[in-house]
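Box 4.2: Ligand-aware structure prediction
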Amino acid sequence: MKDHIESILLDQDDIREICKRLGNQIDEDYQNKNPMLVGLLKGCVPFIGDLGKYITIPIEMEYMDVSSYHGAKSSLEVKILKDLDSPVKGRHVLIAEDIVDTGFTLTKVIQLLKYRGAASVEVVTLLNKEEGRLTKMVPKYIGQEIPNRFVVGYGLDYNQKYRNLPYVGILKQEIYE
Ligand code: 5GP
């Protein structure tokens, strides 16, 4: 698989340092708040696992699986494939995402969790593609800003492959063209 990667953006050491930094910030900000860390499947899996190791306050971990599609009047809709197991009413929710690009998916998920009565909803993302943003979504915690290129690895896929790579790399254009 390595010959499909143009260059590595984050290696395992970089990722560990990012998770430590984010874990420390979350520890400070969520003292006594018993936050619910909500991972968006499937891309969040390696990240939420590593991030969780560096959060020392009590947290609950939950998972959601959503898919975005263009509905009638070309508005973007989000379909819930797997919902949370616990109610979010009155809870401080922190959504863990692998990457934020346009921000559409998260905007919809945040709306839904607020509608359900969450006390607060914030986002922690490993990667942020600011250039790709088409919404006002601003993740509170960002691991790394990256250029507007298609990346894979460490949870991120292309056609369901490459998720198991231990690093984040730019996929060679010839693979997806
Ligand atoms: P958004 O709604 O912010 O555009 O969508 C974010 C989702 O798009 C991510 O959870 C991820 O599934 C996918 N995505 C966006 N950029 C990339 C990328 O560079 N590589 C991969 N593998 N997925 C991406």
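In the box above, the bound molecule is guanosine-5'-monophosphate. The helical segments are 12-29, 45-53, 104-115, 173-176.
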